């Protein structure tokens, strides 16, 4: 279980900065995309993108160093070598800047740093560590998927130089290469190997970097337009969670992704293509002033809800000194020997004892028979378990072992003391919390209200799924898949992850609306719910009325998202003119699979925020691909897969559900996660088997 929990990754804290003061102060640790970097020579703060800046990132990859358990020697050594042997090779106009960072041996951390630095147009990134054979050596697994081109010559040169010194060099797995305009060199971790390798390759680096910068990039605009490298989009995916300010995590990536090829296509959507991460942030922001509030519910109806108040105990528990064992209450100081049994104390019954003359002269020892959970009578300070006694006669026992004072007694208030806080605002109520509330006799409590939802399936072609469709079907009628799917999906997430929403008015919460402006407007404007989910009608077709309508009656915040499936996802707010009540409108694409993926990625975090959860998005883990998977060349893909825990390899593995066409419901069936795949590039059209990828868990992973 621990392993499983360790595997759960959060993306918010994966780039532990380690500002090692031993390093000459030419080096500045970076914390985020917008950090300024200081010039090594004159300490002048400068913008990161100036053409004459020669930025080099030095990345030490080590769990131990990042945890402070070891001092990094290799990173500082790289800086020294570069400063003494590389900087003199540069022209006078180049300002040489080194940026140093330590990350743990985690794929997400390594990729996060490297993608950030390549976006910042670093000329060179040198990593050290994580290239060996041990299970935590993950540098090649992190770097390879990011590369546009491999630089095997550099690797061979490094291996050769080390092999001349030690055969152990063959256990290094360098994977140098080029990403965008950045040369990435992966050195081993040992400081000795770092010296040997770096000094060997150094003479070739200036020319290599010149060539990379001069290289003419073929026109690929039809493939990847102006988007930042899409692997970066993968990195941007957040684990959204609330903070003290009710806020949300901040992306480190580009906010908007250019949609078109730069050419003004007449039929192209006018909406800016936003990254998934930024879309989620926009949505969460709009949740803030929705004013859903709290409500009182009966304890037994609070299961799965989030508590809206701290809960304190107004009693001590146990309320009386209670026995932990079946046995005899006695006084510890009386020790071993024969005891007279004066009566009994059974759980749930009053104490039943006779009062003997317990005077000084009387040498008799007394005890009371007692059961687990029963009140310990006054005058007795311990309980001996029945196993350590022997019955002599009806009224006498023999105590066979010594007990200490207080033994096997739960003192008053030892479990819960009067006035103590037992549950906090924001806690989720599960069966244990219900048990706790029951123990304390709390019948009602305040919980966060659940946002109400209405679901509208749009489309002239749709009929309720129960309807017969005649065999000619000349109108091209289809059954409404989205309503029943979303209806059960809502039930499912409420059951699996805790309650986050309620359907407005039973069957009335689901309607089929024709592709007709007035019907759609009436349906949206007449809905009183906090959230409206529409499906269909958001693309560029003639009957796709949803976006123009929402422009008219509300505000469209998002009209296009850089993902597959789900690109036309639209998010708007509509404010009722009379009541001033704001409604969030999620317009999901019509294809059933797209609508489900968009529900998990965009709607669910909003529902969870509104219903009081502090963790908004579902958990993400890293998993090993069990097969080679083709990449979409245009957008990052939410690839439906089956996630299982591999007990042998002690890691998650993910198996694709097959063809990912967005109309193919079967790709969703039996899937319990979405792999978040980067968009491919002309040089990388597949992710190989065993590549480690991030995946969003959407369902119970017990099979
Ligand atoms: N509720 C639904 N159930 C099943 N299929 C649907 C549903 N809504 C739309 N579709 C189908 O999804 C595809 C896309 O529909 P469309 O309205 O163009 O969606 P969008 O404009 O959002 O892409 C069409 O083939 C359509 O018939
Ligand atoms: Mg339609």
Helix content: 10-25%
Kindly report how far apart the N and C termini lie. Answer: 16 Å
Mean pLDDT: 85
The amount of beta strand, in percent, is 15-25%
Principal-axis shape equals: flat
Domain module count = 5
Unreliable runs: 1-50, 217-238, 243-264
Topology:
Layout: H1 2-7, E1 8-9, E2 37-38, E3 45-46, E4 53-61, H2 63-66, H3 74-86, E5 95-103, H4 107-119, E6 124-128, H5 139-143, E7 149-150, H6 152-163, E8 177-179, E9 182-187, H7 191-201, H8 205-214, H9 221-224, H10 230-236, E10 256-257, E11 273-274, H11 276-287, E12 294-298, E13 311-312, E14 322-323, E15 327-330, E16 337-345, E17 352-353, E18 365-370, E19 382-385, E20 389-391, E21 396-399, E22 409-410, E23 421-423, H12 431-439, E24 444-448, E25 452-458, E26 462-463, E27 478-479, H13 482-497, E28 502-503, E29 510-513, H14 517-525, E30 531-535, H15 546-553, E31 555-558, E32 570-575, E33 582-588, H16 592-610, E34 620-625, E35 629-630, E36 637-646, E37 651-656, E38 673-677, E39 686-687, E40 692-697
Parallel strand pairs: 4-5, 4-6, 6-9, 16-18, 25-28, 25-29, 25-30, 26-27, 30-33, 34-37
Antiparallel strand pairs: 1-34, 2-3, 7-8, 8-9, 10-11, 12-24, 13-23, 14-22, 15-18, 15-19, 16-17, 16-21, 20-21, 31-32, 32-33, 34-40, 35-39, 36-37, 36-38, 38-40
Helix pairs in contact: 3-7, 4-10, 6-7, 11-16, 13-16, 14-15
Adenosine-5'-diphosphate is lined by residues 457, 459, 461-462, 478, 480-482, 535-539, 541, 544, 568, 589-592.
């Amino acid at each position: 279980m621990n392993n499983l929990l360790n595997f759960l990754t959060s993306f918010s804290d994966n780039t532990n900065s380690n500002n090692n003061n031993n390093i000459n102060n030419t080096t500045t640790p970076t914390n985020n995309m917008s950090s300024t970097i200081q010039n090594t020579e004159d300490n002048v703060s400068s913008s990161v993108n100036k053409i004459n800046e020669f930025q080099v990132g030095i990345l030490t990859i080590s769990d131990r160093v990042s945890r402070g358990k070891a001092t990094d020697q290799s990173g500082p050594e790289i800086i020294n070598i570069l400063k003494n042997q590389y900087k003199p090779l540069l022209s006078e106009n180049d300002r040489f800047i080194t940026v140093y960072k330590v990350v743990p041996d985690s794929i997400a951390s390594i990729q996060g740093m490297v993608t950030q630095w390549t976006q910042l147009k670093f000329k060179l990134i040198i990593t050290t560590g994580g290239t060996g054979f041990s299970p935590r050596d993950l540098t090649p697994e992190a770097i390879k998927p990011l590369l546009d081109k491999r630089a095997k010559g550099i690797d061979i040169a490094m291996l050769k130089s080390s092999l001349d010194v030690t055969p152990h060099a063959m256990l290094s797995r360098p994977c140098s290469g080029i990403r965008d305009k950045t040369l990435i060199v992966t050195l081993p971790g040992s400081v000795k190997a770092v010296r040997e390798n770096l000094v060997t390759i150094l003479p070739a680096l200036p020319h290599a970097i010149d060539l990379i910068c001069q290289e003419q990039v073929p026109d690929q605009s039809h493939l990847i337009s102006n988007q930042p490298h899409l692997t970066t989009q993968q990195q941007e995916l957040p684990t959204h969670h609330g903070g003290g300010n009710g806020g949300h995590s901040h992306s480190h990536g580009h906010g908007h992704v250019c949609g078109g090829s730069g050419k003004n296509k007449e039929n192209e959507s006018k909406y800016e293509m936003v990254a998934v991460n930024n879309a989620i942030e926009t949505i969460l922001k709009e949740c803030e002033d929705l004013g859903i509030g709290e409500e009182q519910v009966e304890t037994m109806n609070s299961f799965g809800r989030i508590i809206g108040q701290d809960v304190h105990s107004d009693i001590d528990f146990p309320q009386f000194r209670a026995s932990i064992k079946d046995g005899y209450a006695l006084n510890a100081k009386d020790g071993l020997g024969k005891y007279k049994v004066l009566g009994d104390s059974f759980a749930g019954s009053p104490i039943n004892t006779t009062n003997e003359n317990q005077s000084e002269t009387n040498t008799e020892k007394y005890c009371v028979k007692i059961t687990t959970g029963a009140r310990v009578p006054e005058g007795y300070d311990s309980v001996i378990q029945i196993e350590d006694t022997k019955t002599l006669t009806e009224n006498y026992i023999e105590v066979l072992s010594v007990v200490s004072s207080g033994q096997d007694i739960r003192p008053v208030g030892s479990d819960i003391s009067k006035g103590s806080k037992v549950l906090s605002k924001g806690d989720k109520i599960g069966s244990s919390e219900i048990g706790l509330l029951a123990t304390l006799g709390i019948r009602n409590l305040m919980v966060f209200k659940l946002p109400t939802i209405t679901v509208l399936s749009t489309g002239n072609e749709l009929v309720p799924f129960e309807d017969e469709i005649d065999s000619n079907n000349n109108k091209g009628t289809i059954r409404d898949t989205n309503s029943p799917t979303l209806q059960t999906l809502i039930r499912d997430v409420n059951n699996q992850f805790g309650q986050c929403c309620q359907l407005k008015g039973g069957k009335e919460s689901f309607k089929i609306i024709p592709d007709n402006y007035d019907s759609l407007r009436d349906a949206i404007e007449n809905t009183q719910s906090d959230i409206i989910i529409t499906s269909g009608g958001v693309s560029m077709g003639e009957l796709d009325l949803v976006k123009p309508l929402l422009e008219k009656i509300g505000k469209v915040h998002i009209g296009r998202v850089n993902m597959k499936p789900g690109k036309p996802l639209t998010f708007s707010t509509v404010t009722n003119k009379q009541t001033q009540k704001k409604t969030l409108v999620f317009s999901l694409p019509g294809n059933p699979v797209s609508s489900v993926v968009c529900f998990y990625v965009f709607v669910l975090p909003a529902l969870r925020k509104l219903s009081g959860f502090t963790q908004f998005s579902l958990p993400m883990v890293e998993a090993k691909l069990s097969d080679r998977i083709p990449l979409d060349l245009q957008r990052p893909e939410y690839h439906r897969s089956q996630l299982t825990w591999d007990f042998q390899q002690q890691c998650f593995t993910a198996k694709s559900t097959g063809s990912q066409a967005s109309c193919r419901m079967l790709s969703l069936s039996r899937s319990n996660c979405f792999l978040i795949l980067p968009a491919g590039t002309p040089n990388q059209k597949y992710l190989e088997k065993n590549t480690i990828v991030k995946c969003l868990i959407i369902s119970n992973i017990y099979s």
